[in-house]
Design brief:
By secondary structure, this protein is of the alpha/beta class. The chain has 17 helices and 17 strands. The protein is elongated and about 70 Å long.
């Protein structure tokens, strides 16, 4: 079946977070299964153009209706590591996508409302008629609204929409100017609580809510996060809407790209290994120590890899660092924060600990080093306050790096506590704690570090349990195809 993805990101050309990885990984899996996939993206000026092959103009004169007139666009085509991509390039004084960054501007809702309209207009004018249009996050929440209210009456009556929400925190709250710009008009209709009216502000439209109401099926990125969005404050005010639309809402785990994250074939690590050759992992441990000037000693390395933002439980990450040192372990951190005060704090910590031979903080991000950290560490901490899916714990499992995680969102769907989970012993793969406080993470770390020192053979069994899990796109790809088939025939 022919599928078009419409998204604001796709790795590696335009990647801010996990959304970009998902759009690439899922598209690739769908194509492996024999389905042609095209991806429509904004043509940002700050994209990784070195990752696009044969970039050329596919459609010169696309006129997108806007504010009673039209904005002239070109649509470019290029291949990104096998994905067939189309890039919307508006020639407008608004410079929607020529700002040197992907997000963070005052007119965010207008920029992506235009992108949503332009993507549909392009499909209409070029006679692209996919069976499924798959859209992502609030930035494309307007696509199913426009399809249902406008484009289905102009030659696109049969297209079905799957809408994936990667994070409920950002919803695209905006005002009536979006209706005037896109030609939807009728504010009294769209501001209704049954349509796009925000449940918490009668004077606001909610683009994510529009996506939920108008799509044929809505997914989020793990079963646990789907439950949390409906029943806890993780829905950020959309719980009632999800309750109304519960029959078309579910959670599917994201996958990991094992062509990239796989210790058997990883080009960034000095010693490749698999469950039969885990001794090679210790060559990587030595290489990691050599690179980061850590002392060679009989002790485990605990790591953290990822953004340092409040969502990730920054206070718990810092506490884990000092607690690891207290427990005769070593600690390695790789990450940076979008918030200057957090970044400054971790630079201060780095300087304070600079002479300590048992820890290293690398403030920033280095793809090559991240692979070596996964391969050379014994454990990884993921103490998130909320976590829709999480990839670091799944990557850790693949590399035999035992995860210590907080029991929330996708972490709870992928990590099963060695001591307390109800599954058979051979299916348990890490340590889970629940309260976002110091005693909770200390308890989980105590158990993990204690097992490493006192029962090394048992620790190795736990490593192997994790390495045998398959969190590739293989399973989720099949689940998404089942959803597509279901909505195609509704």
């Amino acid at each position: 079946m022919f599928i078009v993805m419409i998204a604001s990101e796709m790795a590696p050309v335009a990647k801010v977070g996990g959304l970009g990885d998902v759009v690439f990984g899922l598209s690739r899996e769908l194509e492996i299964r024999g389905n042609p996939v095209e991806v429509i993206l904004p043509k940002y000026d700050c994209m990784r153009y070195d990752q696009i092959w044969d970039l050329h103009v596919d459609y010169h004169d696309l006129f997108v209706p806007w504010h009673g007139g039209a904005i002239h666009c070109s649509v470019w085509q290029g291949m990104v590591h096998g994905r067939n991509c189309f890039f919307i390039d508006p020639h407008s004084n608004d410079k929607f996508f020529n700002r040197g960054g992907f997000y963070g501007y005052h007119d965010e809702a207008t920029r992506f409302a235009f992108f949503s309209k332009a993507a549909l207009e392009y499909m209409l004018q070029t006679n692209k008629r996919p069976e499924i249009i798959h859209v992502h996050d609030w930035q494309t929440g307007l696509v199913p609204v426009l399809l249902s209210e406008v484009y289905k009456f102009h030659g696109m009556p049969d297209q079905r929409v799957c809408y994936t929400i990667h994070n409920f925190k950002h919803q695209g709250i905006t005002g009536s100017q979006i209706l005037a710009a896109t030609g939807l008009h009728r504010p009294e209709y769209y501001f209704s609580r049954n349509q796009m009216g925000d449940d918490n502000n009668p004077h606001a439209l909610n683009l994510m809510k529009g996506g939920i109401v108008y799509s044929n099926f809505v997914t989020t990125v793990s079963p646990q996060y789907a439950w949390e969005a409906r029943h806890t404050d993780q829905g950020y005010g959309l719980g009632a809407t999800l309750e109304i639309h519960q029959n078309k809402f579910g959670g599917l785990l994201n996958g990991v790209d094992y062509d990239v994250w796989n210790p058997e074939i990883d080009p960034y690590i000095p010693y490749t290994y698999n469950p039969e050759t885990t001794d090679h992992k210790y060559g990587n441990k030595k290489a990691l120590r050599d690179r980061l000037l850590l002392r060679e000693d009989y002790k485990p390395i605990i790591c953290y890899v990822g953004r340092l933002d409040p969502q990730k439980g920054v206070h718990l990450i810092e506490h884990a660092l000092f607690y690891a040192l207290e427990c005769s372990a070593q600690f390695v951190l790789l990450g940076s924060s979008p918030e200057p005060n957090i970044n400054d704090h971790f630079w201060h910590l780095k300087n304070f600990l600079n002479e300590n031979p048992d820890c290293h903080l690398e403030i920033g991000f280095n793809e090559e080093l991240s692979h070596l950290i996964y391969a050379g560490s014994d454990m990884i901490v993921v103490p998130s306050l909320f976590e829709p899916c999480g990839l670091t714990q799944m990557i850790g499992l693949k590399y035999g790096t035992v995860p210590i995680v907080r029991g929330i969102g996708g972490l709870l769907n992928t990590v099963f506590d060695r001591d307390y989970d109800g599954r058979p012993l051979e299916e348990r793969n890490g340590y889970v704690f629940y309260q976002p406080d110091y005693p909770a993470i200390e308890s989980a770390m105590d158990r993990a570090i204690g097992l490493w020192f006192d029962y090394p053979e048992e620790f190795k069994k736990l490593m192997l349990n994790g390495m045998r899990y398959d969190f590739s796109w293989n399973h989720s790809g099949a689940d998404y195809l089942n959803i597509y088939e279901y909505i195609r025939h509704k």
